[in-house]
Amino acid sequence: MNGDSVKTEYEEVGINPAYASLERELLRALLQATDYGVLVSGLDRQDIIANRKLTQLFGLSAAQVVQMDPDSVRDWAVSRVSDRDQFLGLLERAYLDPYLTATDEVELKGSPPIILRRYTCPITGRTGQAVARLWTFLDVTESKMMQRNFQDELHETTAELNIAQHRMVELEKLSTAGLIAVGIAHDIRNILSAMKLAIAGLPEPAGIVLIDHFDRFTALTQRLLASSSPALLETRPVSLPQLCRNVAALMKVQAELYDVELTVKCAPNVPHVLVDAGRIEQMLVNLCLNSIQAMDGPGGKLQLGISGLPGLVVIDVQDTGGGMEQEIASRIFEPFFTTKSNGFGLGLYNCRRIAREHGGEITVQSEHGHGTTFTVVLPAMTEPGGDG
Q1: Could you please report the per-residue DSSP string of 29-44?
Q2: Which of 169, 282, 295, 342 has the highest CB neighbour count under 10 A?
Q3: pTM of whole model > 0.85?
Q4: Residues 246, 207: one domain?
Q5: What backbone phi and psi angles, to 5 degrees, belong to 366?
Q6: Which residues touch 157 (CB under 8 Å, ≥6 apart)?
């Protein structure tokens, strides 16, 4: 082999020819420094190279690995793993197919157990023919535990969100029922007033007794009407772009659960609004939940868009769900109207009520098969300035 061919050979693997004499020492240092347990075996299954990390993982010295017969090494490894059949299954496949490349996870016995990502691929010569097999083992215990903890937190958060949503619906159901009761009480009061005038003309003592009962009945209707007075809004200047970003953060887990991409797009210089931030946040969370649940297939997109018009701030909640027929869209804000088998038909009704409490309005644009956009319009503050 002449100098030019040596130079070409080392250039192929990225080694400076001037350091060719150090190649073996450099490779040895690399094997000892890596976080991967490394094992190189011949096609006859005899182990050729093992590094220190492999020793730490499996408790067998590198010298023992390469000097012992392959069956003894495999038996030792099998005694260390939790799933014997899985561990041996990939070994058999790899040595039956010299060109197999595969990855799996191996759990080592212990308290706590160690989880390894096992990888294998063929080592080929210059002609492309398999001459040996590479095995690597990476300790991924910490990342797997973090993943499991995240999944547990995700399920827990989702459960809490579902409970909160259910409670919100129940409260809205009671609230709407209260409004109906108030309307009835108002009508009853008017009827009682007319009847009282008629009873006043009856002879005593029957008239006096009846009027006494009517007074008590009227007092009950008055108490019911008084209890229905809406709570005062706790308004303050609010940045809707920032509030929408907060809502997006709250809805992140729910969006990920449904594989929905949630984004916020803000126009520049959006003016502030004078609103009850909690009520507006409640409205937007409700709209987002409806949109996310409307996208029953993976890969949906939900966007909160905030922009300004003269004297107004506009929030668009746009999804890529299946959309609605016009007949359904025209009734979507009616109380107790719902297309869900387990719904109460109060969420969107409440959204409209919140918008109107703040002097705004909410509308919907939807086309079957082409998504839905809810548009909330609120009065802007007159002070200059804003944010995006």
Answers
A1: HHHHHSSSEEEEEETT
A2: 295
A3: no
A4: no
A5: -150, 145
A6: 253
